[in-house]
Amino acid sequence: MGDQTMAGRTVLVTGASDGIGAEAAKVLAERGASVHVTGRSADKLRPVAEAVGTEPLVADFSRLDDVRRLADQVRERVPRLDLLMNNAGGTFATSQRTADGHEPNFQVNHLAPFLLTNLLRPQLAAAGASLVVNTSSIGNLMGKVVLDDLDYERRRAIEFLAYGTGKLMNICFTRGIAQRWADDGILSVAVHPGPVGSSFGRDSWLVGLAYRSPLKRFFTISVPDGAAPLIALAERGPDPELNGRYFSRFKIDGPENKQAHDQAVIDGLWERSAELVGVG
C-alpha cells in the first residue's frame, strides 16, 4: 500500500479529467484517501475514476445547474469532506457567453467553484477541520477585479487578462473563506502550480498554439511536477498558519496582485458572487 498519509480523508477534486487534477487525484488515492473526481469530459474522467475507485461525477462548469447537481451528488455520497481541491479552470475565448450568460473566464474560473464550495460548506464543516485548495496562477498579477463590471458588459474582455482576473479572484475567494469560515474549521489556501504542459489551453486558439508548439518544452513543467504542490498542501491538511495564504509552487506568499490584499475587493467580490449564484 505504500505511503498512507491521506488514510481516512475524503477528497473531491474538480478538473480531474486530465492534467494536474487527474494526477493529484490518483496520488492522493494511492496515499489512502477516498477520492471523488469531477470533470466535464465523461470519456476522459472514466479511467481516472476507475483508478481512484469511485464513480465519476460529470459536470460542466460553464453550466451552473451542472454545479448544483454535482453538489447534490456529492452530498448524497459523502457525509463529510476533508479536502476540496478546486482545480477546474482554464482560458476561454471571451466572445462566447456561458449557458448562464456570463463571461466564461469569470464563470469557469471563479463563479462555478465559488458556488460549489458554498454548497458543500456543510460537508466541509462536518469534517471538523477541512481544507479548500484553490488552484490559482501567477497570471493573477495581470488581473483586475472591477466590482461593478464582473461580466465585462461595459469594457472589452481580453482573454489573457480575463483569465488572470479569474485567478486573482481565486486568491480573493481564498481570503474570503479564511475570514468567514474559520469558526467552522474550514481553512483555505491558493496555489500557483507552475507552467504545466497539459491540455490547459484547449479552449483557446492562442494559448493552444503555444502549448502545441515545439517551444512548449522550454517553458512548461511536467504534469507530476505541477501536481506536486497541490499534493503537498493536501497532505499538510488544514494548518491555521497557512489559512488565506497564496503559494507559488512550494513557496508561501508568492507574487500577488495588490487587489488580493484589498478588503473592499475581497468582500465586494464575495457579496456580488453570492448574489449572482443565489447563495447566502
Any key phrases for this structure?
280 residues; alpha/beta; Rossmann fold; eight-stranded mixed β-sheet
Protein model, in words:
The chain has one domain (10-277): NAD(P)-binding Rossmann-like Domain (Rossmann fold). 44% of the residues lie in helices and 12% in strands. It has helices spanning 19-30, 42-52, 64-77, 104-119, 121-126, 159-180, 205-212, 216-219, 223-236, 263-277, and strands at 10-13, 34-39, 57-58, 83-86, 130-135, 186-192, 246-248, 251-252. Strands 3-2-1-4-5-6-7-8 form an eight-stranded mixed sheet, with helices on both faces. A hairpin with a 2-residue loop joins β7 (246-248) and β8. It is globular and about 55 Å long. 51% of the residues are buried.
Summarize the structure.
The chain has 280 residues and is of the alpha/beta class. Helix content is 44%, strand content 12%.
Blueprint of the fold:
Elements: E1 10-13, H1 19-30, E2 34-39, H2 42-52, E3 57-58, H3 64-77, E4 83-86, H4 104-119, H5 121-126, E5 130-135, H6 159-180, E6 186-192, H7 205-212, H8 216-219, H9 223-236, E7 246-248, E8 251-252, H10 263-277
